[in-house]
Amino acid sequence: MSERATSTRAGAKDRALGYVRDRILTGEFRGGDLLSEGEVAKALDMSRTPVREAFLRLEAEGLLKLFPQRGALVVPVSPEEVRSVMEARLVLESFAIEKIVNGDRDRLRRVVDRMEAELERQRRVVGSAELRAFLDADRAFHTAMIEAAENSVFTPVYASLRDRQLRMIGESAVASPGRLESIIAEHEAIARAIAEHDLDGARHALRHHLGGTVLALGLAAGPVF
Questions:
Q1: Model pTM?
Q2: Tell me, what's the pLDDT at 216?
């Protein structure tokens, strides 16, 4: 196979990979959906081979389960995974909030400015079909707090949750009409409490926010949320 053909094939695989992964993470392809190579290939105007390779990659990532002659099942997010991710976020983000509120005032102002900028991004796209843009702004809002805590262990751990966070928030938005507007209100409460140096208020707002995602996904409130 020539170098050009290899490059073209790799490009097609990456396009198929991005297409399917993005739709899983935003909730357009929901847990339990059965995808076919042919449907994805037709949507992208390509052969089935790069789609098959993309499916294999997504199976390795735990997003798909392949069934010969039937297709690829979108693996549902389990209740245990939702709770585990949200509990991990609660620990990491609560630590970050405490460090920000009790730390340097100039740093606090810079963090709040970043959070407000991401909030404004969310407000601009909430009424549109740009769910991925909303989810990216959501992730950036929370990442601003984590990065401001300047903990070299916590930051990469938090980053490793990225795709699972996106998927859970995306699915909650699909499952619960009005969830995006609620997220904005919850983000406003977190940012306002931090700006006012209200540690208890910020922690409460964060717990309420993460618990809202748990409830929007159809799970009962547990001992943490």
A1: 0.85
A2: 92
